[in-house]
Amino acid sequence: MPQERFTIALAGNPNCGKSTLFNALTGAHQHVGNYPGVTVEKKSGDCLHRGVALRVVDLPGTYSLTSWSLEERIARAALIDEAPDLVVNILDASSLERNLYLTTQLMELGLPIVLAFNMSDIVRARGEKVDLPRLSRLLGIPIVETVGSRGEGVAELLDAVLAAAREKRRPVSMHYGNEVEEEIARLASGLETTREAGIRVSARWTALKLIENDPELRERQSAEVLAAADASRAHLEKIFGEQPEMVIAEQRYGFISGACQECVSNTVEFRHTVSDRVDSVVTHPLLGIPLFLLVMYLVFQFTFGVGGPAADLVAWLISRLQALLSPAVLPGMLHSVLVDGVIAGVGGVLTFLPNILLLFLFIAALEDSGCMARAAFVMDHVMHRIGLHGKSFIPMLLGLGCSVPGIMATRVLEDRRDRIATMLVVPLMSCSARLPVYTLLAGAFFAPAMRGRVIFAVYVLGALLAVGLAKLFRRWVVPGPTVPFVMELPPYRVPTVKGLLIHTWARGWLFLRKIGTVVLAASLVIWLLCSFPTPPGAAQMSRAERDTSTLEGSYAADVGKAIAPLLRPIGLGDWKVATSLVVGMGAKELVVSSMSTFYSMRAEDNDPAALGAALRTREAFTPLTALVMMVFVLVYVPCLATVAAIGRESGSWGWAFFQVLYSTGLAWVLCLLIYQGGRLIGVGGG
Amino acid sequence: MNKESRPEVDLSGEGGISLSDAPQGARVRLLRVEGGHALRLRLAAMGLSPGVSIGILQNGGGGPALLAVRQSRIAVGRVVARAIRVCQHLAPRQAAKS
């Protein structure tokens, strides 16, 4: 039985409710990936309607279809190259004019379109009436009313989709006035013959885009066509006294205003009054930042307050699993690789999962409610001074929880230079995995009253370094103009539970898949380094003795001994400390566990107080070197998962390598200053 | 004609003024955008095309300005605000409330 199937693409402005509708259409049947070579999310899903299989592709939210931004290029390429059977253009009915601007450009492409008149409930609530049948006739496109958040109108929308896809009716392109149309016709007649094979677009569209001076399409044209296009542009500029692309933009809005005047009966601005009143406080130059910091403080309290016990539970489950797989059950080497290598490594990532999922949940809530846009607005002034975009603040903030989601969050930045600079400094925002190291050392070597302050100072140092280096990187490493800050502040909305869960899960899964695999490989390497060669007579020793002597004679210790002399000028010349730092490259909390293997003789003994006491009696550290160690752990090579994330997200392992080099160099120089400076003024001695 | 407090703000002038200098709470009309091709098209796509009416909701400090344009709220950074030339709104509707 030949089954009918269609591919439909969802297009629309950011914040038009597109992803809510996408979720309503496809439910859990979604695939999230990346567009090849770039970090823009590619979402698609399947749905079945009246026996017809529909593949739904969610395009990135865009305001137009030029080729000036990454999202727009991707959306356009997806429409042209993948040639869906139909485009569903989702309109935020409450700002109809602006949303129809994209519609006019979709009409140009000549693919069948169905309009989803979304959030129609808001329009109705504010007493506005839109004559949809009339608007549909004017545009020549079927329109269906939907309320994506409640799933209303979805069935009707799909009915219209099936009808339009079967009919294959192409919308009529709008008329841009005689002068422009003449030039379009002139250019198009030359294009019919020179048109490249494989691009299934009309000559009229190409001609229009050339008149708009579209950089991507210009690249594909011959010199003659470009000369003709330039002549047309010059001609039009002479007539209108304005650049042709602006003339065309005005024509589009003119057409849209005309249509809206005929079809919308009341255009009082009502929607924003409550939203505006909130904004007058939230975006206030003086009130905004403290308010924003308060919200962020609460988010962190929740993330780590609720996430902490959950993480403990996961850690406990993993330790139970490790205990269950005792050496009695599994032969020696297999036991070691499985328990100490695989489970310890992957388990380490899994213990972060509750915190990360909570953090993702809060981000999704902030994004879906419209708060994230306000945060970027408020922070833009400050971030602009250090050469970054307002949105750069978000990844840096997330870095306090875990660098990996922080680096993944740099996707919100449109400009590659901003993205790279932000990515490089995110690891300096002290992540939660480094906290155990601070707690251990501050607990052992500082008076109770001082501990909190010392740890706080380390966090502040990290943030200051991040800010300073961001400015430096933006100036010297990835120089270039800052991208103009322009963004929409959508009206506040209550996020849907379904939407939040789907967003959280999709990102969490991406994190597990992408980072988990790298960490698994890395933890196996670190396990190999720490477990070989096996010490002689290991079979006769107790477990704890064996662990200690294995680590002492391991390749990791060899590496530690080799680099220990390099760490002597900064007061960390003990090879055991050096080895712990090497192991800590796997994950920062491993610094604590390997020190506990070295110093407390009982590997199972992970009690920080006992380890702290052991460190004091063995005189491994002084208060000064303890501080140096904290600063070193703060700044040196972020964990492998972070390095992997930087490599992935920047699209180049060169940046990951640069990160490793600069952070280690910076850590060494800083620690040298602190240690030698401290000795000079006679603190802590050493 | 000019307000005593800010004589440099002359909304009725021929060339208009920079949006960055326009008073908060005013409603103005966009004349043109002085900037690159990309910025102009980007602003147009977000509703900021020549002739459009703009309500200025927030325009203080050195931070971004918040505008009411075509029923949506658009934030523009200080640099962008300086590049937008505006003039007095000719058919004044209800002024934007701040």
What would your notes on this structure say?
The complex is a heterodimer of chains A (686) and B (98). Chain A is of the alpha/beta class and 686 residues long. Among the domains of chain A are: 5-167, Rossmann fold (3-Layer(aba) Sandwich); 178-263, Helix Hairpins (Orthogonal Bundle). In chain A, 64% of the residues lie in helices and 7% in strands. Chain A is built from 29 helices and eight strands. Chain A has a seven-stranded mixed sheet with strand order 2-3-4-1-5-6-7, sandwiched between helices. With 98 residues, chain B is α+β, with helices and mostly antiparallel strands. Chain B has a single domain, classed as Ferrous iron transport protein A (FeoA) (SH3 type barrels, Roll). Chain B has helices spanning 37-45, 78-83; strands at 17-18, 27-33, 53-58, 65-69, 72-76, 84-88. Chain B has a six-stranded antiparallel sheet with strand order 1-6-2-3-4-5. In chain B, a hairpin with a 2-residue loop joins β4 (65-69) and β5 (72-76). The relative contact order of chain B is 0.28. The chains are: A alpha/beta (686), B alpha+beta (98). Chains A and B meet through α3, α11, α12, α15 and β8 of A and α1, β4, β5 and α2 of B.
